[in-house]
Design brief:
Helix content: 40-55%
Strand order of the largest sheet: 2-3-4-6-5
Strand content: 5-15%
Largest sheet: 5 strands, antiparallel
Structural class: alpha+beta
Number of strands: 14
InterPro entries: Kinase-like_dom_sf (IPR011009), Mito_inheritance_9 (IPR051035)
Number of helices: 16
Length: 499
């Protein structure tokens, strides 16, 4: 038996601290962001810590009378915390009322020292393409009068003083809780975040938010000035109305369809999706912004996947070494997931399929995301996308309207050069990430930490040795590599200006 009072005295307990993974860079800071000392009394018998995600810690709680619930506690880095928690609870219950397999919320609060509790969903995790497409079809078929995030009207009135745009029953549409609209000090901005009356409002809200953020007076302009990004945002706002296609109806989709958020169990005949978890930051958007393959499924970098030819193992597979066989099996798995998701979507979710095949739709999402994202000191990706749109203006022009933005040949050449250099650097970073086996924020599984750390230091040593071979630039190259090695701890104070 675990006693709440004793647990509360031990603030170093794993109950309050992140233990699932480690971080190769600035680990102490990353762990502080994920530490949360919460109030244990009220939970009967804490059986196990189920898991830890990017924004929450989850516990399985067993009551003396037998029932089990899941208690989920958000990290302090969740933003905007109150709106996100209130919206997620309403979104889950709203979609559950439509027949989707979503855990029931028994209790929740968007104030501190409370934990959301939901029905336990046990079972292994898998991606079952036909069922997933059918479930996505249900949610994407729900009609909404406006865009934004779902709330209980009473909760939204408590948070903001208004009750939003009414939906059926106690639900309503209120401000969009997408993270880029609230990141860091952006949460303090008095800017429009919805509800959105039309697709154009969605397309411009993020860029106008970022312009309001960049219009502060305390920048020192020592690095790439925010004025460069502001100029590109103004260009985007002039082009944005032409990005809206004819089919701009609002719909909702799961914000993070990863394998950890789809719970699967096996009955006597087959695997079945039992629940879909983690609806934080869910938002109602136009179809063309929701259409796209989930990151965990898409395999567009692979030529075979792009061809949509049914994949299979290579010839003479049995003659390959065990290491190569393991690689080929994993490659086949990724290709099959990509292939069958496309087929299942075409068969069971025509709404999404139409969005996937809509002309130039990936580009619309691509440039929208760059214009909405929080500025992190560079603007070349947005600039390059703007130039791409200007050069292909005929694809988006409404009638014979001239393009409202013009770039000089010198501006195009400069953007091309910088974009290629950045693409090369990102390619090298992806290779390092694949070799060392880390994810976002240099996260690795706890069991893999020592191996990954040693490997990253070995790669650094080899890189320094390679840079020292040219005697003419030896000292300079050595200093640059050592000062900028991406897997060493670094001062993050200079990054605060982007928050």
């Amino acid at each position: 038996m675990l006693y709440p009072k004793r647990l509360m005295e031990d603030t170093e307990s794993e109950l309050f601290n992140y233990t699932t993974g480690r971080f190769l860079v600035n680990e102490a800071l990353r762990l502080r962001e994920r530490r949360h000392v919460f109030n244990i009394p009220g939970l009967f018998k804490i059986i196990a810590k189920l898991g830890e995600g990017g924004l929450n810690r989850t516990f399985l709680v067993t009551f003396d009378s037998g029932p089990e619930i899941v208690a989920r506690i958000p990290y302090s880095l969740l933003t905007p915390k109150t709106y996100t928690l209130a919206s997620e609870a309403a979104t889950m219950n709203f979609l559950r009322s439509k027949g989707l397999p979503i855990p029931e919320i028994f209790a929740y609060s968007f104030v501190s020292n409370n934990e959301a509790q939901m029905e336990s969903s046990n079972g292994e995790i898998a991606l079952l393409m036909d069922q997933l497409a059918e479930l996505e079809s249900i949610m994407m078929s729900i009609s909404f009068p406006v865009g934004g995030s779902i709330y209980y009207a009473e909760d939204l009135k408590t948070l903001s003083g208004n009750t939003g745009i009414p939906l059926e029953g106690p639900f309503c549409i209120g401000p969009d809780v997408s993270m880029p609209l609230w990141y860091g000090r952006r949460e303090q901005l008095d800017v429009f975040r919805g509800p959105y009356k039309d697709a154009k409002s969605v397309m411009i809200a993020g860029a106008e938010k970022e312009l309001a953020y960049l219009d502060r007076e305390h920048y020192d302009y020592k690095k790439q000035p925010p004025s460069d990004h502001a100029e590109n945002l103004h260009h985007y706002l002039r082009l944005a109305p032409s990005l809206v296609p004819d089919d701009d109806a609002f719909c909702i989709r799961h914000p993070d369809l990863s394998d950890s958020n789809v719970k699967v169990s096996k009955d006597s005949r087959r695997l079945r999706i039992r629940s879909m978890l983690d609806w934080q930051h869910a938002v109602v958007l136009p179809l063309f912004l929701h259409a796209g393959m989930p990151d965990v499924i898409q395999n567009e970098e692979d030529e075979v996947s792009r061809s949509m030819v049914e994949p299979e193992l290579p010839g003479a597979f049995d003659q390959l070494s065990k290491e190569v066989q393991d690689w080929e099996r994993e490659l086949l798995r990724r290709r099959l997931v990509h292939y069958h998701y496309n087929l299942s979507t075409a068969a069971y979710n025509r709404i999404h399929h139409n969005g996937l095949v809509y002309p130039f739709n990936p580009f619309r999402r691509h440039i929208f995301n760059h214009a909405t994202a929080a500025w992190e000191g560079e603007t070349i990706k947005l600039r390059y996308a703007l130039i791409d749109m200007v050069l292909g203006w005929a694809r988006f022009a409404k009638g014979d309207a001239p393009c409202p933005v013009v770039f000089t040949e010198d501006e195009k050449a400069a953007a091309e050069k910088l974009y290629r250099a950045l693409a090369g650097a990102e390619k090298h970073e992806r290779m390092l990430r694949d070799y060392a086996g880390y994810a976002e924020e240099t996260w690795v599984p706890a069991a893999h930490y020592e191996k990954a750390k040693a490997f990253s230091q070995e790669i650094k040593r080899m890189t320094l040795e390679a840079g020292a071979q040219d005697e003419e630039v030896r000292e300079e190259a050595y200093a640059v590599i050592k000062a900028n090695w991406p897997l060493d701890d670094m001062e993050e104070e200079e990054l605060e200006e982007y928050k």
